[in-house]
Amino acid sequence: MQFRLDCTTVVCKNCGFCFVSPAPTREAYDRFYREAYSTYYRGIHGSSDVDRTSRRLQETPAEAERFRTIERFKTIDGSSVLEIGPGEGRFLRLIANRGAHCSAVEPSADFRARLAKAGIETVGEFIERVEVNRVYDLVCFFQVLEHFHDPRLAMSVIRELTAPNGLVVLDVPNIKQPFRSLDRYFLRYVHLSYFSPTSLRRLLTKFDFDVIWMETGDAREFRKPQSIFVIARKLDGPSESRVTRSEDWRAVVQDLERYRWTYALHHAPRLKYSFAKRGVRRLVSNSAAGALYRRAKRGFRSR
């Protein structure tokens, strides 16, 4: 597993949902996020120098396209936005430039300090414990839902925090389209749940959100991360399009095994070349020819 943080991922035979079992205790998991997460994953959030990053803070084409998609359903200017797990707050700083009023829920003390430097208010550490004393037009969480210790409890609080007719905007890794090695990268300690388009829609519908936009990436591409991007609107009552269909657990397992072989075959030539190159280096280093080669490389400076 990633960083050698071992865990076991299982598939439910009733609904096909993938999750870590046994999960770490709530206390151990919370402590990991408070004290260690920013150390393990510092690189994915960019520079820790807020002043330096803010000088070059410009929207990428992908970010601009995402904002345009959001604005098809909700005007950003003047909207209240809550992001859960924003890291150092790039998304919040970008959307604030478009006129939004921003707040955050962030467990890492390191990241909270960076958010404070950027002028972003933090209203809590863990979403499950946030006091609901106001609501937001947009509740956003990117690559975060899979981290929740209890996704259902988190979604119940998120529903309370979402204003009437408000939107939740999120993306998650797609279990149907993994990235890199399953065992050494994709399946990891900090991802307690894994979603497919079907299971994600089922979860949102269960909490009376109507999925109004969903992107699933390119099914043929496994060399780049392929996420599920969703915009869902809060409904006053149960969704008319309530999803009851479950995922076939056998199909989930077959898809993962197929991916494992595809990934292995793609990397087999590189691995063979790497091992062969290593073997040649070993032979050269242990031979008289290797000694001559090293002396030549040094320009015959040795006596």
Short description:
By secondary structure, the chain is of the alpha/beta class.
Task: Please give a structural write-up.
It is built from 11 helices and 10 strands. It has helices at residues 26-35, 37-40, 50-55, 61-71, 90-97, 109-117, 151-161, 182-186, 197-206, 249-285, 288-297; strands at residues 9-11, 18-20, 80-84, 101-105, 121-124, 136-142, 162-173, 193-194, 209-215, 227-234.
Structural class comes to alpha/beta
- Which ranges are low-confidence, i.e. pLDDT below 50, for 5 or more consecutive residues? 43-55, 299-303
CATH level-four homologous superfamily name of the largest domain: Vaccinia Virus protein VP39
Largest sheet: 7 strands, mixed
Topology (SSEs and partners):
Layout lengths: L8 E3 L6 E3 L5 H10 L1 H4 L9 H6 L5 H11 L8 E5 L5 H8 L3 E5 L3 H9 L3 E4 L11 E7 L8 H11 E12 L8 H5 L6 E2 L2 H10 L2 E7 L11 E8 L14 H37 L2 H10 L6
Parallel strand pairs: 3-4, 3-6, 4-5, 6-7
Antiparallel strand pairs: 1-2, 2-8, 7-10, 9-10
Keywords, separated by commas or semicolons:
303 residues, alpha/beta, Rossmann fold, 2 domains, seven-stranded mixed β-sheet, three-stranded antiparallel β-sheet, 11 helices, 10 strands, disordered C terminus
